Every structure is written in structure tokens, then in C-alpha cells.
Amino acid sequence: MVDNSVPKPTGNMTNIEPNPLMKHIRQPKIYIKLPSGGKYWPKGAVEIPETGELPVLPMTARDEITFKTPDALINGQATVDVIQSCIPDIKNAWEIPSIDLDVILIAIRRASYGDSLEMSHKIPGTTIDKDYALDLIQIYDSYFHKTFEDTFKIDGFTVQIAPVPYKDFTKNALKTFEEQRILGIVSNEDTPDAQKLEKFQKAFANLTAINIDMVANSITAIQPDGDANAVVNKTHIRQFIEQAESKVYTQIQDHIKEQRAKFNHEPLVMQATDEEKEAGAPDTYEIPITFDQSNFFGSAS
């Protein structure tokens, strides 16, 4: 007799059932636009939906642990991993233009913990620690009233720049940190003077090279007045920056600094209370706004 029954699965086969918990996994909490509008991102680094808004997911427990890993924070890997986890449309967070980075971090904070950030600051001239709340929506909105001027004229040239990507910013920050650490060692009284001088000169030369690299890497094209074509070759641009007159370098550097400063946070201007004035505070004082990953993503506010 032929057995027409359906064979039972063997021990090597898995009976796959839909996970009823999947409908409860994290979903986008907010949607954001980028100050750059997607400009300055290399091809494939981000996929912007037709709406122009990127969905942002709250952090997972794994993401929070990632932000508590010191080495990963220092080299930037933690930031990259969490950004790509929370904003899947960002495929390569190392390529984030500097003008988009804080907006992205603010969005992840908002999606994870809400729109308010509790912070503390010591009032100048006193021993008083004052708590205050930042409105992250207001800070987010402020970025869209700023314009990155990527093309400008200096004496004899038209220059085009782009915001530094996160990978270059992190690399230069690490170099600067290391050189400043060396300078700290040099100041040690136990170090012989000749060795101090040698290390200082080397560290100073390296810091100068870092600054030149930042300027050169920011430039995408230089067109001399009267020339029909702009120079876009990165090697040629770097050679020019290294050997140009100091006034040319300074004019370019000043414009880059000016554009970077636009996307820094304005400090909060606070009016001192009578109690704070009695303790030594000035009538008004400023509280700088800094987003440090160690507390920015530490816990809910």
C-alpha cells in the first residue's frame, strides 16, 4: 500500500513561525530634513525619500551600550553605528557633512527620549549649579535659517568649498588630541630642555599640518581670475594651499571658519536672579550649548 501522507519534518528542518513580537518592534518616532538637503553627500551614502524627510527610530539597548564604549566614542565608530541603526536611510555615516551632523544627533535624541534635554551649568562668579531645559525642536529648527556659502571670491580667485565629512573631522580631532597630549608631556619639568624643544617643534609642525589639511580637504575647486576653467584636482589644490601667499590661505581659512561657526549653537543668554547676583553672578551671563555624547545620550530627561 502506498503511503500518501505528508512526511513529517526531520530533525534538520526548522518549523518557522511568525514572531508575534515583531509588530511591537521600534517604529519611526519623528521625520527630519537635512540642512544640506542631501548636497555634499557622496553617491550611495544616503537615500532620501521622495518626501525629503528621513525617518528616525529610537535607540535600542544595544545602541545605548555602544555610546558607553570609550574607545568607540573616541574614534567615532560608536556615533557611526548608532546613526546607521536609528536612521537606516543613512548608509555610510562616515560621509555625513558637518552641517548635518548635529541635526542628526538631535533627531536621535528626540526620537529616543523626547524633545527636552535637561542640563546643568555653574553660574559664573558663584558656586551655584543651575538646571535648565533645552528645547530640542527649537534648536533643530534654527539650522534651517542658516545657509552654507560654498562659493566665494578672494583676491585673484573664486573658491568653492564643501563641509568636512565626519570621517575627516574625526581623524583630525584624533590627531589634534594626540599632539596636544604630547605638548602636555613636553611641559613636564622632568623633561630635559633640549628634548622639550625637539618635541615641541615636532608637535607644532604636526598641528600646523593638521590645520592645512582641514583647509585643503574643504576645497573642491579653485578658479584663478581670468582662467576659463576651475582646478578640481585635489593634489593640485593641496600643492597650491601649501605654497600660496599667506593672505590667500588666510582668506580661505577665514571663510571656512565663518561657515563652520554658523552651524554652532548660540549660547543661552540668562538673566540673573537677585539671589544669583548676591552670590556674585553678573546681571546677564551666557550658557554654552554643547552636545557631549557621554550625557547627551545617557538617559531620558
Write the SSE topology.
Blueprint: E1 30-32, E2 54-56, H1 61-66, H2 70-74, H3 77-86, H4 98-113, E3 116-122, E4 129-135, H5 136-142, E5 151-154, E6 157-161, H6 166-186, H7 193-218, E7 219-224, H8 234-243, H9 246-262, E8 268-271, H10 274-278, E9 284-287, H11 293-296
Antiparallel strand pairs: 1-2, 3-4, 5-6, 6-7, 8-9
Please trace the helix and strand order, writing H or E for each element. EEHHHHEEHEEHHEHHEHEH
Strand order of the largest sheet: 5-6-7
Structural class: alpha+beta
Which bin fits the share of residues in helices? 40-55%
Mean pLDDT: 86
Task: Report the portion of residues in β strands.
Answer: 5-15%
Total number of helical segments?
Answer: 11
Largest sheet: 3 strands, antiparallel
Whole-Å distance between the termini? 72 Å
Task: Give a count of the beta strands, DSSP E runs of length 2 or more.
Answer: 9
Shape: globular
- Please state the CA-atom Rg, rounded to the nearest Å: 26 Å
Give the uncertain stretches in residue-range form.
none
Main features:
single chain; 301 residues; alpha+beta; three-stranded antiparallel beta sheet; two-stranded antiparallel ribbon; 9 strands; globular
Task: Give a verbal description of the structure.
- With 301 residues, the chain is α+β, with helices and mostly antiparallel strands.
- It has 11 helices and 9 strands.
- It has helices spanning 61-66, 70-74, 77-86, 98-113, 136-142, 166-186, 193-218, 234-243, 246-262, 274-278, 293-296; strands at residues 30-32, 54-56, 116-122, 129-135, 151-154, 157-161, 219-224, 268-271, 284-287.
- Strands 5-6-7 form a 3-stranded antiparallel sheet. The protein has a two-stranded antiparallel ribbon with strand order 1-2.
- It starts with 29 loop residues before the first strand and ends in a 5-residue tail after the last helix.
- The relative contact order is 0.13.
- The model has no long low-confidence stretch (mean pLDDT 86).
